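Hi everyone, sorry if this is the wrong subforum. Our group has a chain we'd like a structural model of before ordering constructs, and none of us has done structure prediction before. Sequence below.
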Amino acid sequence: MSFDIDATEYTSETDTHGNMPKPGQYHVEIVKWDDSFSKTDAIIAEFGVLAGTTPGQMGKVHTEFFATGSKADDPTKRAKGTKFCLDRIATCAMAAGVVRPGEHKAIEASDMLGRDLVIALEEDTYNGKTRVKIPFCQMWPATHPDVADVPKGATAMDAPFNSDVSDL
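Answer:
Right subforum, don't worry. Here is the predicted structure as tokens:
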């Protein structure tokens, strides 16, 4: 039995990787922030692309895993590498305008949803697989001078994403 495969719309093997954006800098909206730890020991964040430096990426969604151990763990007793991950979460929250530098604040998932910021995505190869990820703390407020040249899209409230927060 044969199976008809039409690959005429693709320009490379990586074009089939679904709705993931390609490397670049993007103005994004946080469309999911899952800190339930029900699936993994990480906060799972989804960033919907509003605009960016790589053409044709609007509407795509990047998923980032912010590993933390467990929400119930005492952060001072976690492995040294977890401090790195907690710094990434703090950077994201500051870039999204949920927490200000110098402030200590408990946040809820709902505080993060709908917030816009700019992220960088770069290719990374891990265990033989290539993916895109946010390198360390490459996240900025949308108005930050370091990302003034990154195209900005519609405001977060006008974004083309359907956020389903019922499972948070």
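For your construct planning: The longest helix spans residues 80-95. The radius of gyration is 17 Å.
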